[in-house]
Amino acid sequence: MKHNAQRILPPLLILAAAMPGTILRAEDNIIRQTQLESGIQYDLVTSNNTGSAYSFMPIEEGGASYELYAYGSAWDTNLYFLDRKVIGHYLPRARITINTQDMWHDWFHPGLPPRTRADKPYTLAIKVWGLTDDDDAPLAAQKVLYTHVGQNYDETYTPNGNAEYVVNSFHMFNQEPNYTPVYTALVPMAPTKAMGIEKFTISSLADETIPETSILAEEMLTVWPVSEAFIDGVETGMTIRDSLPNLIIRYSDLYPLSWTYVQIYKGAPQLGKSGAIFNTTPRWHNTIVPQSEVLSIENWESMIGTDGQYTIEVVTITPFNNWQPERLSHVSFNIDRNVNVNGQVVTSEK
């Protein structure tokens, strides 16, 4: 039996959200309705940028899809696809929510996927509703397909040709969200060096009633590697008796939102201890991808007081660990610049 009632189109379908860098002409918005069973199509040209409208044809039992298109600006004659929704009798709904410890990302870079670090957990909450438990209903009305794929990045912080791979895929039924922390499922060469994109998708099933799948919800997560730092020019346990050597500091994969510096203090290594910061070393980053840099420290005699043991540390501060400092690298050495002269006193008498 056909479903003769007309549906109000989802407001998002009529919202002519411009593609980046494109100014859409309001008079050229097109909404295309396609009956999924018969394939019949109908195009509505509308001058509205927002609002709602009734479907142009009665929705068949198999459902209907609605696609939104819009032309570019006066000098851009390309027709842009903006959005798609499928409406039917037994179409489920789904929502995916990802929360990471880097809550500042949305403030500084709105519109980009949430991000985390390879060694830090995040929460993946999935809600599915609108499915039926009727065994006689079409499969698309009983369950949905969950797919989790990964794509590794290389040292350029891009896929650079790396293919996507399936991490997990299975059917889901109605469920409430679970906020249990999880860790990245990317497969890197080293666990702390995982970086790339993870994509979580919930799709409707195709069957004899709905001949094509539709993405019900999809979210992505960016994963960046754990930062590293290296100190060259002085080694742990060495004793410096003459002039101080030049130091080379190498920052590697600094988190996109981070404050990193090199400090020195007298004494053995001690986590959380504050020292004197080498004024050429602080780096504040608020970027989209990690940062790496090589810098030098010269003429640092003013940072040394009396002889004894000293520690040099590379420290970074990120949104993780409640913005508490994290040590990336350290080296402990001794300063001994006392000069002992062995000799004898000789006197002569006349």
Write up this protein.
By secondary structure, the chain is mainly beta. It is built from 3 helices and 21 strands. The chain has 3 domains: 77 residues; 132 residues, Immunoglobulin-like (Sandwich); 108 residues, Sandwich (Immunoglobulin-like). 3% of the residues lie in helices and 41% in strands. The strands form 5 sheets. Strands 14, 16, 17, 18, 20 and 21 form a 6-stranded mixed β-sheet that branches. The protein has a 5-stranded mixed β-sheet with strand order 6-12-11-8-9. A 4-stranded antiparallel β-sheet has the order 2-1-3-4. 24% of the residues are buried.
Q: Give me the count of strands.
A: 21
Distance between the termini: 137 Å
Helix proportion: under 10%
Rg from Cα = 31 Å
CATH architecture group name of the largest domain: Sandwich
Protein structure class: mainly beta
Overall CATH class of the largest domain: Mainly Beta
Main sheet attributes: strand count, strand direction, barrel closure: 6 strands, mixed
SSE series: HEEEEEHEEHEEEEEEEEEEEEEE
If helices are DSSP runs of H or I spanning 4 or more residues, what is the number of helices?
3
Q: What's the number of structural domains? A: 3
Short note summarizing the structure:
The chain is mainly beta and 350 residues long.
What's the arrangement of secondary structure elements?
Elements: H1 11-14, E1 29-35, E2 41-46, E3 64-71, E4 79-87, E5 93-99, H2 105-108, E6 115-117, E7 122-129, H3 139-142, E8 144-152, E9 165-172, E10 181-182, E11 196-204, E12 215-224, E13 228-232, E14 239-240, E15 247-254, E16 257-266, E17 276-277, E18 283-286, E19 291-297, E20 308-317, E21 326-335
Parallel strand pairs: 6-12, 14-21
Antiparallel strand pairs: 1-2, 1-3, 3-4, 5-7, 7-10, 8-9, 8-11, 11-12, 13-15, 15-19, 16-17, 16-18, 16-20, 20-21
